[in-house]
Amino acid sequence: MARQVQTMKKVLAATLAGLMINLAFIASAPANSRPDTGAQLVAKVKVAVAKLGTGSSARIEIKLSDGASLKGYVSETAEDDFVIVDDRTDGARAIPYPQVRHVKGNNLSTGAKIVIGVGIVIGVLAFVGWLARGS
Hints:
By secondary structure, this protein is α+β, with helices and mostly antiparallel strands. It has 3 helices and 6 strands.
Protein backbone atom coordinates (compact mmCIF):
# COMPACT_ATOMS: atom_id res chain seq x y z
CA MET A 1 0.00 0.00 0.00
CA ALA A 2 2.79 2.45 0.91
CA ARG A 3 4.57 1.61 -2.35
CA GLN A 4 1.43 2.46 -4.36
CA VAL A 5 1.12 5.79 -2.58
CA GLN A 6 4.78 6.60 -3.37
CA THR A 7 4.22 5.66 -7.02
CA MET A 8 1.10 7.82 -7.20
CA LYS A 9 2.99 10.76 -5.69
CA LYS A 10 5.77 10.40 -8.27
CA VAL A 11 3.27 10.21 -11.14
CA LEU A 12 1.43 13.26 -9.81
CA ALA A 13 4.68 15.21 -9.43
CA ALA A 14 5.76 14.34 -12.98
CA THR A 15 2.33 15.25 -14.37
CA LEU A 16 2.30 18.61 -12.59
CA ALA A 17 5.83 19.38 -13.76
CA GLY A 18 4.83 18.59 -17.35
CA LEU A 19 1.75 20.80 -17.12
CA MET A 20 3.80 23.68 -15.72
CA ILE A 21 6.29 23.39 -18.57
CA ASN A 22 3.46 23.25 -21.11
CA LEU A 23 1.79 26.37 -19.71
CA ALA A 24 5.08 28.27 -19.54
CA PHE A 25 5.84 27.99 -23.26
CA ILE A 26 2.50 28.84 -24.86
CA ALA A 27 1.63 32.33 -26.01
CA SER A 28 -1.34 33.30 -28.10
CA ALA A 29 -2.06 36.45 -30.05
CA PRO A 30 -5.56 36.34 -31.50
CA ALA A 31 -5.73 38.38 -34.66
CA ASN A 32 -9.52 38.53 -34.74
CA SER A 33 -10.88 38.98 -31.22
CA ARG A 34 -13.76 41.17 -32.45
CA PRO A 35 -14.99 42.35 -35.82
CA ASP A 36 -12.38 44.79 -37.15
CA THR A 37 -11.84 46.44 -40.43
CA GLY A 38 -9.40 44.77 -42.79
CA ALA A 39 -6.67 47.35 -42.16
CA GLN A 40 -6.86 46.94 -38.38
CA LEU A 41 -6.68 43.16 -38.69
CA VAL A 42 -3.65 43.37 -40.98
CA ALA A 43 -1.95 45.73 -38.52
CA LYS A 44 -2.56 43.32 -35.63
CA VAL A 45 -1.16 40.40 -37.63
CA LYS A 46 1.93 42.44 -38.60
CA VAL A 47 2.57 43.33 -34.95
CA ALA A 48 2.16 39.71 -33.81
CA VAL A 49 4.55 38.44 -36.50
CA ALA A 50 7.05 41.22 -35.77
CA LYS A 51 7.07 40.33 -32.05
CA LEU A 52 8.05 36.77 -32.93
CA GLY A 53 10.99 37.86 -35.04
CA THR A 54 12.63 35.58 -37.58
CA GLY A 55 14.68 32.39 -37.47
CA SER A 56 14.14 28.81 -36.40
CA SER A 57 13.22 29.86 -32.84
CA ALA A 58 10.35 32.08 -34.08
CA ARG A 59 7.74 29.30 -33.94
CA ILE A 60 4.34 30.20 -35.36
CA GLU A 61 0.96 28.63 -36.04
CA ILE A 62 -1.47 30.51 -38.25
CA LYS A 63 -4.98 30.06 -39.55
CA LEU A 64 -5.77 31.49 -42.94
CA SER A 65 -9.01 33.01 -44.17
CA ASP A 66 -9.63 29.90 -46.31
CA GLY A 67 -9.56 27.71 -43.17
CA ALA A 68 -6.10 26.22 -43.72
CA SER A 69 -3.61 26.01 -40.85
CA LEU A 70 0.18 26.20 -41.05
CA LYS A 71 2.85 25.45 -38.44
CA GLY A 72 6.50 26.25 -38.73
CA TYR A 73 8.81 29.18 -38.21
CA VAL A 74 9.07 32.68 -39.65
CA SER A 75 12.09 32.89 -41.92
CA GLU A 76 11.61 36.48 -43.13
CA THR A 77 9.18 39.38 -43.04
CA ALA A 78 8.34 42.06 -45.58
CA GLU A 79 5.89 44.94 -45.87
CA ASP A 80 3.13 42.94 -47.56
CA ASP A 81 3.85 39.35 -46.47
CA PHE A 82 6.01 37.03 -44.39
CA VAL A 83 7.59 33.68 -45.15
CA ILE A 84 6.87 30.53 -43.13
CA VAL A 85 8.98 27.39 -43.38
CA ASP A 86 6.48 24.54 -42.94
CA ASP A 87 7.29 21.89 -40.31
CA ARG A 88 5.94 19.00 -42.38
CA THR A 89 7.32 19.79 -45.81
CA ASP A 90 10.31 22.01 -44.96
CA GLY A 91 9.08 24.23 -47.80
CA ALA A 92 8.96 28.02 -47.59
CA ARG A 93 5.69 29.80 -48.32
CA ALA A 94 5.00 33.52 -48.55
CA ILE A 95 1.83 34.46 -46.67
CA PRO A 96 0.17 37.83 -47.39
CA TYR A 97 -0.90 39.52 -44.14
CA PRO A 98 -4.54 39.98 -45.26
CA GLN A 99 -4.98 36.20 -45.62
CA VAL A 100 -4.20 35.56 -41.91
CA ARG A 101 -7.10 35.27 -39.46
CA HIS A 102 -5.31 34.00 -36.32
CA VAL A 103 -1.67 34.02 -35.15
CA LYS A 104 -0.27 31.89 -32.36
CA GLY A 105 3.44 31.93 -31.70
CA ASN A 106 6.27 31.58 -29.26
CA ASN A 107 9.68 33.19 -29.19
CA LEU A 108 10.91 33.91 -25.69
CA SER A 109 14.16 35.72 -25.01
CA THR A 110 17.01 33.80 -23.41
CA GLY A 111 16.54 35.69 -20.13
CA ALA A 112 12.84 34.82 -20.03
CA LYS A 113 13.61 31.15 -20.69
CA ILE A 114 16.14 31.11 -17.85
CA VAL A 115 13.70 32.73 -15.41
CA ILE A 116 10.94 30.30 -16.38
CA GLY A 117 13.30 27.32 -16.07
CA VAL A 118 14.54 28.39 -12.64
CA GLY A 119 10.96 28.97 -11.48
CA ILE A 120 9.91 25.51 -12.65
CA VAL A 121 12.88 23.84 -10.95
CA ILE A 122 12.17 25.67 -7.68
CA GLY A 123 8.48 24.74 -7.88
CA VAL A 124 9.20 21.06 -8.57
CA LEU A 125 11.80 20.89 -5.79
CA ALA A 126 9.38 22.51 -3.34
CA PHE A 127 6.64 20.07 -4.35
CA VAL A 128 8.93 17.04 -4.03
CA GLY A 129 10.12 18.32 -0.63
CA TRP A 130 6.53 18.70 0.47
CA LEU A 131 5.75 15.15 -0.68
CA ALA A 132 8.81 13.73 1.09
CA ARG A 133 7.97 15.54 4.33
CA GLY A 134 4.35 14.36 4.21
CA SER A 135 5.17 10.63 4.05
